[in-house]
């Protein structure tokens, strides 16, 4: 199947400054992709290119097979209607009601009045705002405003939904509910979603696949599990992952040594698990097979997309710790020894 979005060797500069450098990736129909990067990485510039507000100086951007970089402006106006945009600050018209805001793209598309009302009711139901038609944006919470923003973005049945820092202005609870809503929309409508953000925690919970932009270059393309497993020596990934990874408890940082001490000690490890291994009874297994006592110090198992994934810091203690470590190395996606502490720590 052809990709819904195909970015080929896109380069774009502002004067001497290269904001995007030879970017290539493609997105399949129905995929949920998180595009992450620090401030200045080039996210907004790429987003503007994706929705044809900026024409890259080099390369091609194909949306459903149509090259945006070669279309005349009047064609681009029509193509932009096929891209739903969700903004950080909602961009709602304060003088219009909720229904009036959602109606806007329908009016631009020339949708008959009767059909507009039915479509608005359908969209309000989809985003969980039934009965909110007559309210004004000033009467809504941030999360509700973003639901209106999403309904408006979906109104004209877009081919692609682009979310630009869609949760960055929201509190954690609203962020969660908006991410759940977007996941629900992806499941129900099979809509392709590209979510642009600087927050790893957002893509961690939501994206099936993560693209990392750094200094205008696409430096990573993979799943969170790929990054946790292989990112140990990758500074860009380490910086991004530091926001979401469990860290060593402070009460241990002072006593952690690089080599095992004389006398009874615990081995402190970081473990990345996925799929079956994340749901297995790890602690009882280590105890039964090796007589090793394992204690969870930080982290745990969470659901990432459809899969279970574990990222945790453990302490292990027992005479057969070496054998237990060899076993974990085989069973886990990644196992790293962080150091050793005296038993009484
Ligand atoms: N119109 C412009 N003129 C000149 N330089 C620009 C322009 N737009 C962006 N840049 C530069 O291009 C680089 C990428 O900017 P961009 O806004 O795409 O990054 P970003 O990842 O979206 O950052 P942020 O998260 O802070 O919004 C930056 O160095 C920025 O200063």
From TrEMBL:
CDD domains: ABC_MetN_methionine_transporter. GO terms for cellular component: plasma membrane. SUPFAM superfamilies: ACT-like, P-loop containing nucleoside triphosphate hydrolases. Pfam families: ABC_tran, NIL. GO terms for molecular function: ATP binding; ATP hydrolysis activity; dioxygenase activity. Residues 5-240 form the ABC transporter domain. InterPro entries: AAA+_ATPase (IPR003593), ABC_transporter-like_ATP-bd (IPR003439), ABC_transporter-like_CS (IPR017871), ACT-like_dom_sf (IPR045865), MetN_ABC (IPR041701), MetN_ABC_transporter-like (IPR050086), NIL_domain (IPR018449), P-loop_NTPase (IPR027417). PROSITE patterns: ABC_TRANSPORTER_1, ABC_TRANSPORTER_2. GO terms for biological process: amino acid transport. Gene3D superfamilies: 3.30.70.260, P-loop containing nucleotide triphosphate hydrolases. SMART domains: AAA, NIL. Keywords: Amino-acid transport, ATP-binding, Cell membrane, Dioxygenase, Membrane, Nucleotide-binding, Oxidoreductase, Translocase, Transport. Belongs to the ABC transporter superfamily. Part of the ABC transporter FtsEX involved in cellular division. Important for assembly or stability of the septal ring. This is Cell division ATP-binding protein FtsE.
């Amino acid at each position: 199947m052809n990709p819904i979005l195909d970015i080929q060797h896109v380069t774009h500069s502002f004067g001497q400054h290269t904001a995007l450098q030879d970017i290539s990736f493609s997105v399949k129909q129905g995929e949920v992709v998180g595009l992450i990067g620090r401030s200045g990485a080039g996210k907004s510039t790429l987003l503007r290119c994706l929705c044809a507000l900026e024409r890259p100086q080099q390369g091609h951007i194909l949306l459903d097979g149509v090259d945006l970089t070669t279309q005349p402006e009047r064609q681009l106006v029509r193509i932009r209607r096929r891209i739903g945009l969700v903004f950080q600050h909602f961009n709602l018209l304060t003088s219009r009601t909720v229904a009036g805001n959602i109606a806007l793209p329908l009016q631009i598309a020339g949708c008959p009045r009767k059909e507009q009302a039915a479509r608005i009711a359908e969209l309000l139901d989809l985003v969980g705002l039934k009965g909110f038609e007559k309210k004004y944006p000033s009467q809504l919470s941030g999360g509700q405003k973003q639901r209106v923003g999403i309904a408006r973005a979906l109104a004209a049945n877009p081919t692609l939904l682009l979310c630009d820092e869609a949760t960055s202005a929201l509190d954690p609870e609203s962020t969660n509910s908006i991410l759940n809503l977007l996941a629900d929309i992806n499941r129900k409508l099979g809509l392709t979603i590209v979510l642009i953000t600087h927050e790893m925690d957002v893509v961690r919970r939501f994206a099936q696949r993560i693209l990392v932009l750094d200094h205008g270059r696409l430096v990573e393309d993979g799943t969170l599990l790929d990054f946790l497993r292989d990112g140990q020596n990758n500074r860009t990934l380490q910086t991004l992952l530091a926001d979401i990874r469990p860290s060593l408890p402070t009460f241990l940082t002072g006593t952690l040594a690089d080599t095992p001490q004389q006398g009874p000690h615990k081995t402190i490890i970081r473990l990345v698990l996925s799929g079956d291994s994340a749901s297995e009874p790890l602690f009882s297994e280590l105890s039964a097979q090796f007589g090793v006592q394992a204690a969870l110090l930080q982290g745990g198992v969470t659901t990432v997309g459809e899969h279970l994934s574990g990222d945790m810091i453990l302490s292990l203690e027992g005479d057969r710790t070496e054998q237990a470590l060899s076993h974990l190395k085989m069973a886990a996606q990644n196992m790293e020894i962080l150091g050793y502490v005296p038993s009484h720590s």
